[in-house]
Design brief:
alpha+beta, 1 helix, 23% helix, kinase, kinase activity, Putative sensor histidine protein kinase (UhpB-like), HATPase_C_sf, transferase
Length: 43
């Protein structure tokens, strides 16, 4: 892991199976998509 910058953020998100996207339109937007795992509850 390289540190606290954007590349470090990308590495941490990737390690969790997600992705990080930067958008530069009226300002900067950081979008992080992470998978969620839903556990089935037996009833």
């Amino acid at each position: 892991m390289t540190g606290f910058g954007i590349q470090g953020m990308r590495e941490r998100v990737s390690a969790l199976g997600g992705d990080l996207t930067l958008e530069k339109h009226n300002g900067t937007r950081v979008i992080v998509n992470l998978p969620t795992f839903l556990q089935q509850i037996a009833g």
